[in-house]
C-alpha cells in the first residue's frame, strides 16, 4: 500500500516539476496549483499514513486542502523572499510565486482530484458504490461535507467508526445530525439495550440523509438542512409536535431520510 502511494506521489511530483520548470501562462499559473494538493496528500500518505484509516481517507485530504489556503497566506507576505528561497527551486515551486485568490479554486479542484484518485485506488470491498460516493461527497456535496469535517474536528475525541461507507461519530448529545459523509448519533448508555436500539435507529435515519446530500449537493443545506434543524429545534415546532402528537418524521425530509436509510441498510430507522 505504501508503494502505491509513493508511486502516486512520484508521478504527481514529476508533473509539478515539469510545470514549474517549463510551463507558462495558464498551465503554470493554475494547473500547477491543482496538483499541489494531491501531491502533498500522497507524500504524507507514503511517509506517515500508508494504511487506509478514518484519518487518512476522510480527514487528511481536507487538511491538505487547508495547507493550500496557508500557502496563499505565505505568498501574501512573500515568504520566499523573506527566507531567500529561489522561486525556481522545488520548495519555491510548491510555495508558489504570488498570492492569487483564484488559486483557491485550483486547490479545490485539487481536492476533487485527490478524491478521484482515492476512489480509483480504493480497495474497499464491503460496499459496491463506496468509491463513487466518496468522490461525490467531496465534489458535488463539498459544502456539507466540509462543514461535517469541521464538526468532526471539534468532536474528534468522541468514539467514531466506519458506518456503511461514511464516518459515524457518537457525540455527547441526545440528537443526530448528518453532514455529507459525516453523521453524528446520540451518546449510548452501557448496558441499556433500549438506548442502544434507539441510537442505531437514529444512525439508519442519519445515513438516509447522506443519500439526500448525494442527490442534492449544494442545495442540501437549503432543502434538507434548514427545514430539519428548524423542525427539530425551534420551540414553536417542538410544542406543536407535542400538543398534536405529530411524529418527528412527519416532515417530508425526515420521512424521506428514514425511508432511504432503511432501504440502504435493511435495518429499522426512527419513525416517531
Q: Topology of this structure?
A:
Blueprint: H1 2-22, H2 25-34, H3 36-47, H4 54-76, H5 79-83, H6 90-95, H7 102-121, H8 130-138, H9 142-154, E1 160-163, E2 166-170, E3 177-179, E4 182-185, H10 193-216, H11 220-233, H12 235-244, H13 252-265
Parallel strand pairs: 2-4
Antiparallel strand pairs: 1-2, 3-4
Helix pairs in contact: 1-2, 1-3, 2-7, 3-4, 3-7, 4-7, 7-8, 10-11, 10-13
Q: Which strand order do you get reading across the main beta sheet?
A: 1-2-4-3
Number of strands: 4
Classification by helices and strands: mainly alpha
Question: Count of DSSP helices?
Answer: 13
Give the averaged pLDDT, no decimals: 83
General description of the model:
The chain has a 4-stranded mixed β-sheet. 67% of the residues lie in helices and 6% in strands. It has helices spanning 2-22, 25-34, 36-47, 54-76, 79-83, 90-95, 102-121, 130-138, 142-154, 193-216, 220-233, 235-244, 252-265; strands at 160-163, 166-170, 177-179, 182-185. The chain has 272 residues and is mainly alpha-helical. Strand 3 and strand 4 form a beta hairpin.
What is the structure about, briefly put?
The chain has 272 residues and is mainly alpha-helical. It is 67% helix and 6% strand.
Main features:
272 residues, four-stranded mixed beta sheet
Amino acid at each position: 500500500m505504501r508503494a502505491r502511494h509513493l508511486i502516486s506521489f512520484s508521478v504527481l511530483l514529476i508533473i509539478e516539476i515539469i510545470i514549474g520548470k517549463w510551463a507558462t501562462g495558464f498551465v503554470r499559473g493554475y494547473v500547477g496549483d491543482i496538483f499541489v494538493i494531491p501531491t502533498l496528500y500522497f507524500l504524507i500518505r507514503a511517509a506517515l499514513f500508508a494504511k487506509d484509516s478514518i484519518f487518512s481517507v476522510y480527514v487528511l485530504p481536507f487538511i491538505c486542502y487547508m495547507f493550500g489556503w496557508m500557502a496563499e497566506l505565505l505568498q501574501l507576505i512573500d515568504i520566499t523572499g523573506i527566507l531567500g528561497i529561489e522561486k525556481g527551486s522545488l520548495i519555491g515551486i510548491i510555495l508558489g510565486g504570488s498570492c492569487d485568490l483564484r488559486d483557491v479554486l485550483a486547490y479545490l479542484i485539487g481536492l476533487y482530484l485527490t478524491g478521484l484518485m482515492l476512489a480509483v485506488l480504493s480497495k474497499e470491498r464491503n460496499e459496491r458504490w463506496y468509491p463513487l460516493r466518496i468522490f461525490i461527497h467531496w465534489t458535488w456535496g463539498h459544502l456539507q461535507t466540509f462543514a461535517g469535517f469541521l464538526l468532526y474536528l471539534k468532536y474528534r475525541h468522541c468514539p467514531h467508526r466506519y458506518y456503511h461507507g461514511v464516518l459515524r461519530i457518537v457525540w455527547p448529545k441526545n440528537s443526530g445530525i448528518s453532514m455529507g459523509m459525516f453523521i453524528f448519533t446520540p451518546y449510548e448508555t452501557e448496558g441499556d439495550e433500549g438506548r442502544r436500539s434507539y441510537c442505531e435507529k437514529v444512525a439508519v435515519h442519519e445515513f438516509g440523509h447522506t443519500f439526500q446530500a448525494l442527490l442534492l449537493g449544494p442545495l442540501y443545506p437549503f432543502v434538507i438542512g434548514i427545514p430539519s434543524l428548524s423542525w427539530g429545534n425551534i420551540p414553536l415546532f417542538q410544542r406543536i409536535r407535542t400538543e398534536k402528537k405529530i411524529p418527528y418524521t412527519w416532515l417530508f425530509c425526515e420521512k424521506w431520510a428514514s425511508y432511504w436509510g432503511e432501504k440502504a441498510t435493511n435495518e429499522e430507522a426512527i419513525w416517531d
